[in-house]
Amino acid sequence: MKNQPYKIHRAAVIGAGVMGAAIAAQLANAGIPVLLLDIVLPDNPDRNFLARQGVQRALKARPAAFMDASRAGLIEIGNLEDDLKKLGSADWILEAIIEKLGAKRDLWEKVEKVAKPGAIISSNSSGIPMHLQIEGRTEEFQRRFVGAHFFNPPRYLHLLEVIPTPKTDPAVLKAFSEFGEKTLGKGIVIANDVPGFVANRIGVYGIVRAMAHLEQTGLTPAEADQLTGPVLGRANSATFRTADLSGLDIISHVATDLGNATPEDEDFTLTPAFRTLVEEKKYLGDKTGSGFYKKTKGPDGKTRILNLNLQTFEYEDQGKVKVAAVEAVKGRPLAERIRSLYGAEGREGDFLRGVMNDGFWYASKMAGHVSDRLQDIDNALKWGFGWEQGPFETMDTVGVQQVITNLEAEGRTLPPLLQAMKDSGRTSFYQGNETVTPAGQPTAYQAPYFILTDLKKDATSVIKKKPGASLVDLGDGVLLVEWHAKMNALGEDQLRMVQEGHKAVQQLGYAGLVIGNQGENFSAGANLPLVLAQAQADEWDELDDQIKQFQQVTTSLRFSPHPTVAAPFGLALGGGCEFSIHADRIVASAETYMGLVEVGVGLIPGGGGTKEMLMRFTDQQQPGQQQGAALLPAVQRAFELIGTAKVSTSALEARKLGFLHDHDVIVMNKNHLLEEAKRQVLALAPDYVQPTPRTDIPVMGDAAIGAVKSALYGMKEGGYVTEYDLVVSNELARVLSGGVGNNRTAKVSEQHLLDLEREAFLTLLGKKGTQKRIEHMLKTGKPLRN
């Protein structure tokens, strides 16, 4: 169909199993109405039972499949007998049924008869080649067919492998890739239609080879996971815990299929111990309760994790496993850890070098085969398995020529890519804005979207830089204040850079300012260790000045003469939340976990958060309900939100909680945040009028304190709050009352509420109960219930 726009407004998923239902949930998260179909079970009066069960399973899933449970309303359920014709309304039809070629071919024959001419058709198969599925279909059907391989759970794993066949219309590939990236929030990797595609081809090879090295070196699975987990910049589940989660039978099946479909030098041979686990012992991982690990209850009733002894196939309690090579590099930057571990001695070093060298060799061999771009292979491993660095980025860290030397010392034949790197003497795959082709020839790095990283950032765009923050020119007259401290805790560098940003906008004629970054989290809040140290040193004047400065900086986002946009993602807690809610507009990642959590450390929000939420909720009251007792629902809502340290589980929930206004924007793909934030600044700038602080905020006075204390009494009697919770809550109630005594019709200014906040914050900070809470949080990462 010539000039077909291929816009996706409605979708259909066939197959309501774990994966199909979760994909339908992600479509609903993105606001896409979706039809979910499955087969009819014989002798079951509910002909939609499997589809209904799939939605219920997604609603109960942990971690949650839905960003907001109400989004389940976008899913229409049905069955393949009664509702097949409904597929005709879908712009995109995806199958997620059993992994059998015959079943998929039969399904496509039925789908072709009812699908509308412009519909994109996809398979979520993890291994069956796409071109085999569409044999016998019409040319028109084949042109609109493209593989779409999601990773489980699809809400949280960023990777979406898009697999065109030789028959796929380039316009379909382009339209679907853009839909996957922008609407569904996925990281798109264009994979070649070969067995295993990209991530599973390389990832399963890595697990199989890790098992071989495990047996050769005699390490335990727990020791190996210590070496291949977070210390190496990889997921907490590392290698063998990941295998348990995936299912050892699934890994065995996929490895066997890949072994049959690939050349002999790509060794997918399962070790005898692995085969014994699967075929004889039936230890299949989490699904059977036993795999490389087994959970059990100890005499004290606490859960213990037992480790498999691969010699006896018995489970042993090894306690807390510590590996010397890992302990030696704790706290060091990732690059230093990788280099140190790659050169480690003894069994630990032998195991890790063997695993890493296998990965380096195989990724290099697959370049140009599974995908035509090195960065796509790196991204597939990062987005699909939670790695911080892909194999080529890791080789750059170790040193490409060092890797080549080591591989040759093992007697390996270098893949063409590494041979070309050796011949050219090139020391890294990525240099500035340049990378190499699979043949080793220099080529421009093609970023998949607007993104700033150390690799792609133009150094000339950094206007000012401090250890904890930078001021960056985003182009088109927009400046970015970028935080880059640990957890982006808020301290002097971060605050001063916001002030510098405001000055630069005015002095240099910029349109406006974005507050954002591309770290792991937007901001986890204030620098607690510093706050505690100052309190214990009785530096109260300094603390008072610092809180005043913090309030001035957060509120400056509202009252500057130019537009400001906050771009939160991940954790936006405490001060990170306060910065966001004071901006003219928020552009939030869909996965934003926002909350005013200060009560967990015995404090209340001191940077305008208490003031802001009270003001928002009173504004939402009807005009006739904005004085006296009629204000009680607004006060209660603010008290509950702050007093229970409620954190949103998504940006959609943050909007329901009141942290986001209706005009704020939610972006599914975190990597588009800065682009959209920049766009919002430019949209606001032409007609922007500088706001003025308000002086008309209605408050309840002592009546608010009385209502809150009454509720607290019941909670205390029921065992829901502790003695010190009451102390903190009373200070919070005093601020929410407006501090106006018995005057129930008073109106106060924003500054008045800010002053009350600061006073309450300092009062609580001076109490031993609060200091104990902060100490406990810093030591354990958990709140103290004193």
UniProtKB/TrEMBL annotation:
3-hydroxyacyl-CoA dehydrogenase NAD binding domain mapped to chain residues: 11-193
Swiss-Prot/TrEMBL catalytic activity: a (3S)-3-hydroxyacyl-CoA + NAD(+) = a 3-oxoacyl-CoA + NADH + H(+)
Protein's name in the database: Putative 3-hydroxyacyl-CoA dehydrogenase, NAD-binding
InterPro entries per record: 3-OHacyl-CoA_DH_NAD-bd (IPR006176), 3HC_DH_C (IPR006108), 6-PGluconate_DH-like_C_sf (IPR008927), ClpP/crotonase-like_dom_sf (IPR029045), Enoyl-CoA_hydra/iso (IPR001753), NAD(P)-bd_dom_sf (IPR036291)
SUPFAM superfamilies, per database record: 6-phosphogluconate dehydrogenase C-terminal domain-like (SSF48179), ClpP/crotonase (SSF52096), NAD(P)-binding Rossmann-fold domains (SSF51735)
Signal sequence range: none
Lipid metabolism found in the keyword field: yes
One Pfam family here: 3HCDH
Example GO molecular function: NAD+ binding
PANTHER family per UniProt: 3-HYDROXYACYL-COA DEHYDROGENASE FAMILY PROTEIN (PTHR48075), 3-HYDROXYACYL-COA DEHYDROGENASE-RELATED (PTHR48075:SF7)
Source species of the chain: Deinococcus deserti (strain DSM 17065 / CIP 109153 / LMG 22923 / VCD115)
BP GO annotations: fatty acid beta-oxidation
Pathway the protein contributes to: Lipid metabolism; fatty acid beta-oxidation
3-hydroxyacyl-CoA dehydrogenase C-terminal domain ranges (all copies): 196-294
Keyword list, A-Z: Fatty acid metabolism, Lipid degradation, Lipid metabolism, NAD, Oxidoreductase
